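Protocol step 4 of 5: obtain the predicted structure for the target chain.
Materials: sequence only (see below). No template structures provided, no constraints applied. The aim of this step is simply to have a reference model before the mutagenesis design in step 5. Sequence pasted as it appears in the construct record:
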Amino acid sequence: MFRNQYDYDVTIWSPQGRLHQIEYAMEAVKQGSAVVGMKNSSHAVVAAIKRMPSELASYQKKLFGIDDHCGVGIAGLTADARTINTFLQTECLNHRYAYSKPMPLSRLVGTLGNKMQVSTQEESGRPYGVGLLLIGYDHKGPHLIQIDPSANYYECKGMSIGARSQSARTYLERHVEAYLGSQSVEDLVRHALRALRDTLANDQELSNKLVSVAVVGKDHPFRVYDDESVQKLVDEIIKEPRNPARPAQSGFALDTGVENMDEDVSRPPPPDPEATVALGVAEHRPENP
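Step 4 output (structure tokens):
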């Protein structure tokens, strides 16, 4: 891996005001399999692509339940995700024991953000190399929250993270009114599966062994569906014609005629960020007498 003089530790700032170790952690999220989340007025859904490390191994778990009212989908280092999941479960259990009610999601995410932020400013550890899509339901309704390794978190209507996630985000942006106005959980799951389908290579298709779906909402505790439980909806999506969507072009690309390219999983990952520094050091020479 390429190294420079500003990425030896998370506490070292580059002259451009960047923390390279945090950027590397965010790159680890982009290498994980895709996760898609969305919500409507009553429910929130997260769907994930399961990967297996080899033909002899089982699929890695991508969706984790935290409490009856919330859960997460992860992209990145699964070991870091398990640590975070244990922390969130403990916080929810302590809150239920003290207050006899579920923990509000705003307080839960704020507590997690504080924990993750410590590892971005102390040299005793490293940033968590995992991104999270947290879904939940509380007294304010359904929530979908994206949490980055940088400890930033955002409330979203729809979001995708992981490999080739831009294709899924393009679908979410184009159909935001459709899934926000959907009246059934099945319609919400169909939109999630369609967005997830766009993250796959052209020669790959959805299957019940490849997909996990989790749902939470009003009078619906957090529950993960996979294998045979999602077979019916997966079969419906497979029958639909596949139209690979191009990522939305920026205004700069439209003005200059630069054509945006689809994400290609066959390409190697981009090199790590490099800090380019111009040192204006003048060389002092004695003047000739």
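Step 4 remarks: The chain has one domain: 20-248. DSSP finds eight helices and ten strands in the chain.
Proceed to step 5.
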